[in-house]
Amino acid sequence: MGKNILIIGAGVAGLSAGCYGQMNGFSTKVLEMHDQPGGMCTAWTRGHYTLDGCIHWLVGTKPGTKMNRIWGDLGALQDCQVAQHEIFRQIVVGDRVLNVYTDPDALEEEMLEKSDGDEDIIREFTDAIRGFIGFEPPLDTRKISIIEYIRMLPYLPKLMRYQKVTIGEFTERFTDPFLKKAFRMIFPLSSSPLFIAVLTLALMSDGDAGCPTGGSLAFAKRIERRYLELGGQVSYRSKVVKILIEGGRATGVLLDDGSEVHADHIVSACDGHHTLFDLIGEEHLDQHAVRPYQVLETFKPIVYVSMGVDRDMTGEPPITTVVLDQPIEIAGEKQDCIGWAVHSYDPSRAPPGKCTITSMIETDYGFWRDAHSDRSRYECEKRKVRDILTEHLETRYPGIGSQIEVVDVATPLTWERYTGVWQGAYEGWMPSTEARRMTIPRTLEKVENFSICGQWVEPGGGVPPSAISGRNAIRDICRREKVRFHGQAR
Ligand SMILES: Cc1cc2nc3c(=O)[nH]c(=O)nc-3n(C[C@H](O)[C@H](O)[C@H](O)COP(=O)(O)OP(=O)(O)OC[C@H]3O[C@@H](n4cnc5c(N)ncnc54)[C@H](O)[C@@H]3O)c2cc1C
Q1: Is the pLDDT of residue 197 over 60?
Q2: 281 CB contacts (<8 Å, ≥6 apart)?
Q3: Which residues, including other chains, have CB under 8 Å from residue 387's CB and lie 6 or more apart?
Q4: 1 has pLDDT over 80
């Protein structure tokens, strides 16, 4: 057995690093503060319902793609049905509806039919989607292989073009007021490059961004199973409080029970801010590592409402967004839209004839932190959010209010408590143009044998980038140790 690696965190990134570590001959151990795997890729039960807290779509569901081979390495989709949606999202503006079809031809037809003018821009958008079908982004944008580069060549002009324009800028080009309002909601990430929207729809249309049934926790548990089968070890309820550094090298970790665990390499796959400022300590940090935390924008935290309803919602679109006539205040913030996901496509989440619904509402971290100092106010604010959502669901689905059997409201503090995620920024850094230009360091200049992986080194976050970054952390260790890297995806 080769050298040993300690991995902090059993989220998708940590489990992926563990699997690739084992596959490459290292002896690895994952330390997880919680009592189960998955981190933010999770779900929980309430009564007969499984409330899912993560995957709405997953890149890599098409057999044969690079990302699919990574899921193959990790056993993540083994024996799992993948739901492919005809409609990605339904957007409601007043009494008008835009169905965002995953097939670009159907989407083009829908947009042309629902708009007055804007034909050129509609066709430009749907042509861009068609143009990226089959495109596979490199597994590591910092180390693009020659093969990957050659495969990317035909896409480069389009790639550069749609990296330069943001979703917000493109939206401004629509003149039809309905379409302008609706387009903004397809991917409400106005500062992000249009490329992200175009690529996601291209992947969906190609069957490479479906939704694994069984949910997010089952998905994470399959990776954990693969890791254990490969001989890895996971230690739950093991909270790391310090990374031990001697003579400029990471040598081990200190756990909250006072014990120390030593290893040749330490990989942190937990929250980035916690890793640098709590576990490592400012005296060991360099300016490159700190800079993202000074200048980049994080994902705005969310309040996440989950419901189990005694109602058959078969055929409802997986995601609905309602653009409001007048903004409403939710948890101290003005909202100009409200949306929800209906999971009727996944029978594992509810008994037959019933369904789960979830809603992600952007919110202010400070609001919930302040509310939390008074338990009854905190609970009251959660109930208010639940009531507002129920009211809007009732308008769309009359009678649903009395069919709600379970409700759960998670705030940014819930995510923070559960996974340690900094200020509830559930996907790390926004994939803004600035973030994508910046190379977020995965190692530290002053600490050898240490690396960091997970959503905080991959702007945009998400389950696939976390898995890729766990793999890349091991590939980098292989390089340092002069070991040939093994893994199906290249
Ligand atoms: C509501 C919601 C919806 C989402 N939807 C999608 C989606 O549709 N598609 C998609 O791809 N992504 C989605 N995401 C994002 C995705 O969940 C995350 O980007 C991804 O799971 C992050 O994985 P990670 O391993 O990098 O980090 P994490 O999941 O944060 O894992 C870190 C782990 O480290 C542990 N830990 C923290 N501190 C310590 C410590 N000191 N000692 C030991 N252990 C520690 C934590 O408990 C956790 O298990 C969603 C997230 C949320 C919350």
Answers
A1: yes
A2: 242
A3: none
A4: no
Residues with CB under 6 A from ligand 1: 8-14, 31-34, 39-41, 53-58, 239-240, 269-271, 274, 304, 360, 415, 419-421, 426-427, 454-455, 461-464, 466
Q: What token pair was written down for 428?
A: 């790390």
Q: Which residues contact 54 (CB under 8 A, 6 or more apart)?
A: 38, 40, 41, 42, 43, 216, 463
Q: Whose CA is nearest to atom 3 of ligand 1?
A: 54
* Nearest alpha carbon, ligand 1 atom 53: 426
CA 461 → CA 159, 375, 469, distances in Å? 20, 31, 10
Domain 4-41+60-80+213-297+429-481 bears CATH identifier 3.50.50.60: yes
First to last CA, the chain: 24
3-class DSSP state for residue 407? strand
Tokens 């996601």 identify what position?
200
pLDDT tens-digit series, residues 441-469: 999 999 999 999 999 999 999 999 999 99
Could you count the other beta carbons within 10 Å of the beta carbon of residue 62? 18
CB 356 within 8 A of CB 52: yes
What is the model's pLDDT at position 488? 67
